[in-house]
Amino acid sequence: MPRAEPRSRLIGLCILGFFTFVLLGAPVLAPNDPAAIAPDRRLEATSTQYPLGTDHLGRCVLSRLLYGTRWSLGTAAVAAVLILTAGITLGAISGYYRGPVDLVLMRVVDVLLAFPALIPALAIAGMLGPGMEHVLAATVAVWWAGYARLVRGLVLSMRERHFVEAARGLGAGDLAIIFRQVLPNVLPPVLVLASVEMGGLILAIAGLSFLGLGAQPPTAEWGAMLNDGRPYLLTIPQLMIYPGLAISLAVVGFNLVGEGLRDLLDPRLSDGR
Fold first, then answer.
1. Residue 264 has pLDDT above 80, yes or no
2. The domain that contains 90 carries what CATH number?
3. Which residue in 7, 13, 81 sits closest to 254, CA to CA?
4. Is 109 in contact with 145 (CB distance < 8 Å)?
5. How far apart are CA 228 and CA 126, in angstroms?
């Protein structure tokens, strides 16, 4: 896989830096209350008071986009942390101890990976009911499997290395070996995978909200905004275009940063190989 161009990495960092700034500064940057309804101002065009116009309930589209960054990217960030914690922990246990624990965990992983991740996540979120906390639980319950399998394979190779055997011979306990010897060598490829898959996680959360399983009114969230604008696609397409562009830009940013991180953490990569 070819290396990412330095310019691409810089663009990705700038995009993520911009979204981080918006996420933290939404209350200051938003020109209006994102939940304030004004029936007499519904579906207005761009104006000084409403820079991106209003939606079908007269709410400021720009303010909802800005606050939507908190819900869409914030939820994805929390989900990524929980997924990494679960995947690394279970994968390390499975690969280091093997035996019945490994057998059971890997059969669960096989079942989860047998389907596209969004399908079991959709089923879980549907059973739990609407709500961003349920979408968070559903994505974590599904996405950890890929990380667990990757960590397990890496730990299986690391546990036989000479430095691990030396630590074991010196009397180091299992936890000390895992945290001091194994995990530091396992984390780089896992972090690369997490940065690349962050875009897919954002799309999954937005997709579940678009289907009505995520953020509920009046919460401003990009996927929910897409769903709200769907009836007006032919007449006022910008109600779907703006949140769609926000989602696409965030996904591109994480993909560019993920490729750059891959190159930095794996110096063996070279062009064309």
1. no
2. 1.10.3720.10
3. 13
4. yes
5. 19
Cis preceding linkage at 218, omega within 30: yes
Instruction: Residue 79: give the domain boundaries.
Output: 23-38+66-265
- The token duo for 19 is 């979204």
Q: Are 202 and 72 in contact (CB under 8 A)?
A: yes
Which tokens sit at 238?
């910008």
Which one, of 79, 81, 120, 76, lies nearest residue 221 by Cα? 76
Number of domains, the chain: 1
Residue 47 has pLDDT above 80, yes or no: yes
Tens of pLDDT, residues 63-105: 999 999 999 999 999 999 999 999 999 998 888 888 888 899 9
Spatial distance between the Cα atoms of 197 and 136, rounded to a whole number of angstroms: 15
Could you tell me if 178 and 92 are in contact, meaning their C-beta atoms sit under 8 angstroms apart?
Answer: yes
For residue 56, tell me if it sits in a domain: no
Cα separation values, 253 from 16, 155, 216, 220, Å: 6, 30, 27, 21
Which two structure tokens, joined as six digits, stand for 134? 């349920």
Beta-carbon contacts of 59 under 8 Å, excluding residues fewer than 6 positions away, are 32, 34, 35, 36, 37, 38, 218
Q: Is 248 helix (H, G, I), strand (E, B) or coil?
A: helix
Q: What is the pLDDT of residue 5?
A: 64
